[in-house]
Each structure stands twice: as structure tokens, then as C-alpha cells.
Write a structure and sequence with these properties.
The chain is an all-alpha fold. It has one domain. The chain has 3 helices and no strands. The protein has helices at residues 2-10, 14-91, 93-98.
Length: 102
């Protein structure tokens, strides 16, 4: 390529040389634009994959939290029942002795 440029320059074909140079610049710019587009596409793909991973983990965490809250709620309701029974026994100990809870 260097030989082609030098030959054209030495023969006085400046217009031909300028067109050749513009063609090279165009090819370089197109190559750079393609490389940038590929880089952007890859970055977007990686970000999308990360978002999907985060959403999957978030969903799993929410489901686990929901199960834990349900278990906590059931335990609290059971404790409330026992405490209510103890309050009734404390209010009426004679009746509790006559009719013990089963």
C-alpha cells in the first residue's frame, strides 16, 4: 500500500492520491464504528444478563422471606392462643381446675 501511495505521489496524481487517502480514512472510521458497536452490544448483553440474575435472586429472596413470615405468623398466633388460655386460667382458676383444657 505504501508503494501505491508513493508511486501516485511521485507521478503527480495528487487527486488520485487524495481519493486513495480518503478511502483509507473512510475504512478506518467504518472499522472503528463497527468495533464500538460490537463493544456496546456486548456491554448491553452483559448488563441484561446481570439484571436477569438480580431479578431471579430478588424473586428467590422474596419467596424465602414470605415463607419465613408465614411461619413467624403461625408461631405468633399459637403463642397468642396459649397466652389467651393462660389469661383465662388466671381469671378463673377454679373453673380451670374443674374443666382442664385439652
Amino acid at each position: 500500500m505504501r508503494a501505491v501511495r508513493q508511486k501516485q505521489w511521485l507521478q503527480g496524481k495528487t487527486l488520485s492520491y487524495i481519493l486513495y487517502a480518503i478511502g483509507e480514512i473512510f475504512l478506518i472510521v467504518v472499522g472503528i464504528l463497527i468495533a464500538v458497536s460490537i463493544g456496546n452490544w456486548n456491554s448491553n448483553r452483559i448488563e441484561k444478563n446481570l439484571r436477569m440474575e438480580y431479578l431471579e435472586r430478588l424473586t428467590e429472596n422474596i419467596e424465602a422471606d414470605s415463607k419465613a413470615y408465614e411461619a413467624s405468623k403461625a408461631h405468633a398466633e399459637m403463642r397468642i392462643g396459649f397466652l389467651s388460655l393462660l389469661i383465662e386460667i388466671a381469671k378463673n382458676p377454679q373453673q380451670a381446675l374443674a374443666n382442664p383444657p385439652r
